[in-house]
Amino acid sequence: MIREESRKIIEQYVEAYNSFDIEGMVNLLHEDIVFQNFSGGEMNVETKGIQPFRELAQQSTAMFSSRRQKITHFENADDKIAVHVDYEAIVAIDLPNGLKAGDKIELKGTSLFQMEHGRIIRIEDHS
User: Which domain of life does the protein's organism represent (predicted)?
Assistant: First the structure.
């Protein structure tokens, strides 16, 4: 069973993410946060620590004019919490992967969260 406290922290994190509230996101993280992004089964981004995470989050805000993760459901995944999301975003700038400003991205993904001492210590985004 997922602890209510952990669920609320994750919901606050997603709300801050959707609002481009970087400090709101960072305030929920453990100082040793590890963030990894996987696309098609391959890791394409990794940060370790608060400052590298903050820098990545600031860079990503410039890439999207809007973005929204909608949590569809939570489930236990070993020592992590799997959060299934529907994701939508509008690209703000032309990107190296061929997406152009104004393009819409829609996908389903799963984020794995690990908690330590009431803070998020690990996030793995899978799409």
Answer: Bacteria
